Amino acid sequence: MPSASPVQLTTYLRPDSVWLDVEAADKASLLRRVADCLAAAGPPLEPQAVLDLLIARERLASTGVGHGVAIPHACVAVIDTPRLCLLRTRAPIDFDAIDASPVRLVVGVLAPPNAQALHLRLLARVARLVKSPLTRDALLAAYSAADAYSQIESADSGRALEVAQGA
Fold first, then answer.
1. CATH classification at residue 119
2. Which one is catalytic: 33, 73, 83, 104?
């Protein structure tokens, strides 16, 4: 049986859902920013409802996957298609990550409950993407949200990522 083609993150990540140099004092305030971004990434959702779902998921286990990356995610019954956001924090934030490293890159994922397979494929794709030091470096060095989005587009298409060389 042939495997499914790789999911394209840019199918679900809008350019205006890439926020750079986000100010957050701690994990809770960073999750609030993720909820705000995800709530606005399509037909509007109530940010507090999204935050509550993200916090409930975090209570099960931290979504800090290591190497300065977190992938908070949840299922939301009121959406028909997944939505993603990418946030880069101004300063590292303690996120209770599995390697105890503070987080600077966050990819938030919301998916409808009837799309569990796609939800898992998105999480796996994000995890593969941020596992690469080259990808993490490119996203950390991005000089604008458009540049960060372009890096994700490049990764989606299989093109090599380009680390920004000064600005």
1. 3.40.930.10
2. 73
**Ordered DSSP codes for 88-147:** EEEEEE----TT-PPEEEEEEEEE-GGGHHHHHHHHHHHHHHHHSHHHHHHHHH-SSHHH
Q: How many domains does the chain have?
A: 1
Task: Tell me, yes or no, whether 57 lies in a domain.
Answer: yes
Whether the model pTM is above 0.85: yes
Please say whether the beta carbons of 145 and 20 come within 8 A.
yes
- Is-catalytic flag, 119? no
Neighbours of 113 (CB within 10 A): 11
Per-residue pLDDT tens for 82-125? Answer: 999 999 999 999 999 999 999 999 999 999 999 999 999 999 99
3 is a domain residue? no
